[in-house]
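Example record

One chain of 132 residues, shown exactly as stored in the release files.
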Amino acid sequence: QVRLVESGGGSVETGGSLRLSCVISGYTDSPTCLVWFRQVPGKNRDGIASIDTDGGTYYSDSVKGRFTVSEDNVKATLSLEMNDLKSEDTATYYCALRRWGCVRSVRTGTYAKPYPEDVDYWGQGTQVTVSS
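Predicted structure tokens for this chain:
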């Protein structure tokens, strides 16, 4: 049984930092794509960062330069380091796993924005609240 369990959410002031973790168990195939989504009430889940088995990454414009996604293969843990947090980063954050690696843009070959329908497994989510 594949399980993804997030931790590290909480409340922080504007400009602060948080580190989210996602422990993955029950899945050992390769390649894989590990993804962070976030969701606010009334909106769809938004893919903000991903990392492929080959180490290639994707960041949405909204988090690029502030968030860093990483993977510890030994610990089977996905992380998201979030710096310079803003009020608009307030959301529930989900880690997710896509089999067979991250989707690439046909036109450019770079890693493409992940969408919920691309994903095979989900974590339960962790809340991040940023306040001034």
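Notes: The chain has a mean pLDDT of 96.
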